[in-house]
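Input record, target 12 of the design panel.
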């Protein structure tokens, strides 16, 4: 596994993607317990930040050390860390109910929770972090096996609410304090704090306080502090709400990368309104509507009787669209949120749709196949 990660680092630098290459390089170094390797990386980052260049010889030497490092075999990767079976929760005051819900999460996997506000996403996260007790069903954690108390179990579950709690003092002081609270002191404390702020793009803000950084960087700080605890399960409620669109994509992909750590993988459950960004990294997407769940697994095979669904923004009239696509098996057309949703009979080939658009010279501004996307659940 780590050989592939190191090769990915080399590929990134060879193809000129230094930013991603550095982030993946930090991942590889964070998987080691070698303070000299970690210091080599920080020295390299100091040079990069001052000159915006990476010395090829220094990089090669660091990669060579990583290739020689004795990474442990991780048998956890294919095991379940969370099993949710027929979970239910009812609120008497509002009559809202999370209906029986079940799923399994393995180490290194991501579950995305999507749906409109008020449909149970936050309630589910609070159930998973044991802030709430279910009325029926069960939640089984792999972390329970080595935990002597509820407190010890909850220390392995990290829940970050949508509104990040205020902190006092500098960002770096808080990270050092978090590490010392878990018994990490001395040089290891310094190194781990430096590596995590580098990984999340916080080095320029290390001495800043709450009032001097944006809400987006406060979210990054909360993620950094939580990751230092080496959780087994991270539960994030709308972690992207304070981030710009580029940061949203970067943070999600980075969380996916870090969850696949060689030495300490973890599982991730997050809620978000950013549907497509969440779908890119999620192994399972759960769409909640009025507390009822519908599931979309990544790379799920199409059923023989499953219709093909396309979302399209187009300048032609509804009548023109209907006349054009009826000939290749369109069964239904809907207008949803400013775009048309076209349903085609099972067995319709995707290339038929593109060919028709080209031959008829249709003015299409946007086109997306949502057959295997939870986006189709949002259609009214």
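The sequence produced for target 12 reads:
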């Amino acid at each position: 596994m780590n050989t592939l990660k190191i090769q990915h680092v080399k590929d990134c630098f060879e193809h000129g993607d230094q930013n991603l290459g550095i982030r993946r390089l930090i991942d590889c170094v964070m998987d080691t317990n070698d303070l000299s390797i970690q210091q080599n990386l920080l020295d390299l980052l100091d040079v990069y930040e001052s000159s915006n260049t990476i010395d090829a010889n220094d990089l090669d030497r660091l990669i060579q050390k990583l290739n020689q490092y004795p990474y442990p075999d991780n048998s956890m990767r294919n095991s379940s860390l969370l099993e949710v079976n027929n979970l239910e929760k009812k609120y008497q005051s509002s009559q809202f109910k999370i209906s029986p819900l079940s799923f399994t999460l393995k180490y290194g996997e991501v579950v995305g929770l999507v749906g409109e506000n008020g449909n149970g996403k936050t309630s589910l996260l609070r159930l998973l972090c044991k802030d709430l007790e279910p009325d029926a069903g069960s939640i089984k954690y792999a972390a329970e096996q080595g935990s002597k108390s509820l407190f010890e179990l909850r220390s392995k579950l990290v829940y970050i609410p949508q509104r990040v709690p205020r902190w006092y003092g500098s960002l770096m002081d808080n990270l050092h304090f978090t590490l010392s609270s878990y018994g990490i002191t001395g040089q290891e404390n310094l190194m781990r704090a430096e590596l995590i702020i580098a990984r999340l793009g916080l080095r320029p803000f290390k001495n800043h306080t709450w009032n001097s950084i944006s809400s987006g960087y406060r979210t990054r700080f909360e993620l950094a502090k939580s990751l230092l605890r080496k959780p087994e399960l991270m539960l994030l409620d709308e972690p992207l709400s304070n981030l710009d669109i580029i940061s949203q994509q970067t943070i999600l992909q980075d969380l996916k990368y870090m969850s696949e750590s060689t030495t300490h993988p973890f599982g991730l459950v997050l809620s978000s309104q950013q549907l497509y960004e969440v779908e890119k990294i999620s192994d399972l997407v759960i769409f909640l509507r009025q507390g009822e769940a519908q599931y979309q697994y990544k790379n799920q095979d199409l059923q023989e009787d499953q219709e093909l669904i396309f979302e399209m923004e187009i300048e032609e009239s509804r009548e023109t669209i209907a006349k054009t696509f009826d000939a290749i098996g369109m069964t239904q057309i809907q207008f949803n949120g400013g775009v048309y949703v076209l349903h085609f009979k099972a067995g319709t080939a995707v290339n038929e749709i593109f060919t028709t658009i080209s031959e008829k010279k249709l003015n299409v501004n946007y086109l997306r196949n949502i057959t295997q996307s939870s986006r189709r659940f949002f259609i009214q």
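The chain has a mean pLDDT of 90.
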